[in-house]
Write a structure and sequence with these properties.
Number of strands: 2
Radius of gyration: 25 Å
Strand order of the largest sheet: 1-2
Distance between the termini: 70 Å
Shape: elongated
Number of helices: 21
Helix content: over 70%
Oligomer: single chain
């Protein structure tokens, strides 16, 4: 094998094993930055060793063993011995015993490292933006530049978020493990929130030039699949995975040739990805078997499934959708859910009902500057023939939007209101 080809092989293996390496090392050395450095050292060692010795039968184990040896060497020289000396009162007779304890800890069964790393990266101590950036860096393997481009911010900003997040985790002495009981449930909610945030930013970009960013959707789904493999009996994990896969099935049909978003009614359903739909529906069936149908993500997945099952827009079961939104609002009261419920009820019972429901919520602080609220109101007004008011509402929605393609879509709707 030629060296360039072998180098590509080494780098491919490293990308596949990177998250597991960092997770296992972070749990042992209790510092994410050090774990990343050790993993990178193992890659450098592989690039130097494998061209002459060949690719090992278990390359992931080789990388981990190499990184662990370097960690032990580092501990011999630096912080761990200082910590042990503090514990044993600088007793020279205990020096060799301390080293043995460290090496034994390195060989402990560390369980599923990736799960520990996901829970650490999504710790509630961190802001949502920091959790998303750290998760994409550690689990997704994206560079700071790639994350910055995805979230339309500077590479420096992303790098600073990641550095601060690592410092926060280190300063808080967070355990690199999956918590138990109530803490585990709370942390799992944080993990799911971060993955869904990443997916939503890809599915409907909040700012910038593009209406969608498929790379972010793909990363979020990959994280969801990892989590579902690690926690196969968690209904909400399955619910989020089902929701993302069904929603992502529409990505190829979500924008027109000019990049402007298309409504469900306008989309060519022949371009929907039916493999993703089947996978999402299968995840829904699994969570039903676990009696998890009333969860926040499970209900949203059920809503997405209603659209996925309709061969034509006219076949959509709006009665079922309205009922699901009633249940979702009860399970997770929020202005955004209430807005989506108003849209569903408008489709089921008429735009006047939608306007009535909007009147109850449109003064909510979270909705007053939310483009989708003004767009929904504009659509209801359009459907009852109040064109002047509809045009003003569409224009207000466009004014509030920070996404160029969404603004174009809303301004096109406003122009359609003119006589």
């Amino acid at each position: 094998m030629q060296t360039p080809d072998l180098n590509r092989t080494v780098e491919t293996v490293f990308r596949m094993e990177r998250a597991r390496l960092i997770a296992g090392l972070a749990r042992m050395v209790r510092d994410i930055g050090t774990a990343e450095e050790l993993a990178q050292d193992a890659l450098v060692a592989a690039l130097a060793d494998w061209p002459t010795s060949g690719v090992p039968a278990n390359p992931g184990a080789w990388l981990m063993a190499t990184a662990k040896r370097r960690a032990i060497d580092g501990f011999r020289r630096r912080k761990m011995i200082e910590r042990k000396h503090a514990e044993i009162g600088h007793d020279p007779d205990r020096h060799d015993t301390a080293i043995e304890e460290i090496e034994a800890a390195m060989d402990d069964d560390i369980g599923d490292e990736r799960l520990s790393l996901i829970f650490t990266a999504c710790h509630p101590l961190l802001s949502a933006d920091a959790r998303a950036a750290l998760t994409l860096r550690l689990i997704g393997g994206l560079t700071a530049g790639e994350i910055a481009r995805a979230f339309l911010t500077s590479e420096t900003t992303i790098a600073q978020r990641i550095v601060r997040a690592k410092k926060t985790i280190a300063d808080a002495d967070v355990d690199y493990e999956v918590p138990r009981g109530a803490e585990r449930d709370a942390r799992l909610a944080s993990v799911l929130e971060v993955i869904y945030l990443i997916f939503n930013e890809g599915y409907a970009a909040s700012a910038g030039e593009d209406a969608i960013r498929p790379q972010l959707c793909a990363e979020a789904m990959r994280l969801g699949r990892v989590l579902a493999a690690l926690l196969p009996d968690e209904p909400e994990v399955l619910g989020l995975l089902a929701l993302m896969e069904i929603q992502a099935s529409r990505l190829a049909a979500r924008v027109g040739p000019d990049g402007v978003p298309l409504t469900l009614e306008q989309q060519n359903r022949g371009r929907w990805d039916h493999l993703l739909i089947r996978r999402g529906l299968a995840a829904l069936e699994r969570l039903r078997a676990l009696d998890g149908e009333d969860g926040f993500y499970a209900l949203q997945a059920a809503l997405a499934a209603c659209h996925a099952r309709a061969r034509r827009f006219e076949d959509t079961n709006w009665d079922m959708i309205a009922g699901l939104y009633d249940r979702l609002l009860e399970a997770m009261p929020s202005p955004i859910v209430a807005l989506n419920r108003a849209v569903a009820h408008a489709m089921t019972f008429g735009p006047e009902v939608g306007l009535s429901l909007l009147n109850d919520i449109e003064k909510e602080p979270k909705l007053s500057a939310y483009p989708a609220m003004h767009a929904a109101k504009a659509d209801f007004l359009y459907r009852i023939g109040q064109m002047a008011d509809a045009r003003r509402a569409f224009e207000r929605a466009a004014e509030l939007s920070e996404n160029r393609m969404e603004r174009t879509f809303l301004l096109n709707r406003a122009a359609a209101c003119l006589p």
